[in-house]
């Protein structure tokens, strides 16, 4: 089995997998593009490794393959009802709505209701930055974080990201979960039979563990202790409370649908584009010049994506085998 594939080939195959799950062709193509681009940019825990779980959720009717997304807009804001859509469909749709709103507004906050797992949030904020806007995005998740001694997970690991255009260069894209490590890293370690570093997680008894299987039964630890908890709380306010409905408190927190927020700002509405661009160039040049290894977030992903599109992409053997099995199950053979 070859270890290199053309990204377009994997993207076309992934789209066919989504179509086999009853997604319309345009939605299947967009979801496939988002997953493959995440993989190419180094978001390994939120790229192709997620496809089997998304398929399982679509087959179990946890995600809606044919959502009828609706929205209501008002001054400075949009409420998007995603109708159970895959995050890879709802996220780009929210970005498009927000970019359109920025034509007549300096800023717009979109809250996303009934949205599937968004995957790597940085891919969505990258789209916004490529459209010329500063953006921030967060999604609340079921409780996952705990401090040592907690009896149970207390709050979601609530990922958050931002993207910002940088004149003449790839956009800045910063993407983190509020945990020390994303749950996806622990899932990957469990699949590969590898231990996780100390300080990542607690077992079901609230004790530190390096066993990924015990970690998946317990809790994630927040980055920087209580500081990470505080950022998770901010996301809970913006992505949870702002998107709440009358039935929100009656919905089990473990369900597949999780609300989110997306905030876009048009730079030229404030400092003006020329001053904004000049300032961005100056501070980023100062930053990069400060150390031999200094680089801006998003720069590595841009290089990885361009190289993969030129030379082909690779997949870890365990992931490739999972995709082969998935293709056999759905009658869509994985490309050789």
TrEMBL record:
<protein>
    <submittedName>
        <fullName>Malate/L-lactate dehydrogenase</fullName>
    </submittedName>
</protein>
<dbReference type="Pfam" id="PF02615">
    <property type="entry name" value="Ldh_2"/>
</dbReference>
<dbReference type="InterPro" id="IPR043144">
    <property type="entry name" value="Mal/L-sulf/L-lact_DH-like_ah"/>
</dbReference>
<comment type="similarity">
    <text>Belongs to the LDH2/MDH2 oxidoreductase family.</text>
</comment>
<keyword id="KW-0560">Oxidoreductase</keyword>
<dbReference type="InterPro" id="IPR043143">
    <property type="entry name" value="Mal/L-sulf/L-lact_DH-like_NADP"/>
</dbReference>
<dbReference type="InterPro" id="IPR003767">
    <property type="entry name" value="Malate/L-lactate_DH-like"/>
</dbReference>
<dbReference type="InterPro" id="IPR036111">
    <property type="entry name" value="Mal/L-sulfo/L-lacto_DH-like_sf"/>
</dbReference>
<dbReference type="GO" id="GO:0016491">
    <property type="term" value="F:oxidoreductase activity"/>
</dbReference>
């Amino acid at each position: 089995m070859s270890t290199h594939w053309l990204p377009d080939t994997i993207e076309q195959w992934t789209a066919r997998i989504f179509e086999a799950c009853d997604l319309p062709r345009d939605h299947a193509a967009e979801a496939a593009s988002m997953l493959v681009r995440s993989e190419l940019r180094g978001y390994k825990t939120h790229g192709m490794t997620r496809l089997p779980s998304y398929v399982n959720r679509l087959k179990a009717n946890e995600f809606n393959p044919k959502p009828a997304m609706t929205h209501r807009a008002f001054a400075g804001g949009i409420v998007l009802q995603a109708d159970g859509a895959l995050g890879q469909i709802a996220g780009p749709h929210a970005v498009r709505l927000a970019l359109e709103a920025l034509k007549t507004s300096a800023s717009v906050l979109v809250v996303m209701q009934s949205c599937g797992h968004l995957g790597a949030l940085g891919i969505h904020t990258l789209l916004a930055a490529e459209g010329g806007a500063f953006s921030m995005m967060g999604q609340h998740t079921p409780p996952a974080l705990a401090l040592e001694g907690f009896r149970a997970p207390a709050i979601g690991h609530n990922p958050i990201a931002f993207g910002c255009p940088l004149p003449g260069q790839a956009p800045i894209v910063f993407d983190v979960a509020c945990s020390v490590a994303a749950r996806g890293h622990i899932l990957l370690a469990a699949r590969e039979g590898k231990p996780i570093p100390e300080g990542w997680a607690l077992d079901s008894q609230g004790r530190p563990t390096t066993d990924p299987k015990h970690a998946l039964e317990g809790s994630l630890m927040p980055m920087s202790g209580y500081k990470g908890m505080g950022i998770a709380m901010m996301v809970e306010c913006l992505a949870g409370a702002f998107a709440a409905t009358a039935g929100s408190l009656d919905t089990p927190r473990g369900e597949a649908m999780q609300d989110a927020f997306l905030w876009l700002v048009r730079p030229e509405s404030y400092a003006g584009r020329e001053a904004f661009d000049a300032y961005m160039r100056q501070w980023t040049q100062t930053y990069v010049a400060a150390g031999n290894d200094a680089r801006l977030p998003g720069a590595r992903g841009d290089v990885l994506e361009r190289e993969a599109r030129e030379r082909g992409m690779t997949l870890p053997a365990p992931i490739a085998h999972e995709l082969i099995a998935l293709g056999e199950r759905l009658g869509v053979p994985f490309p050789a």
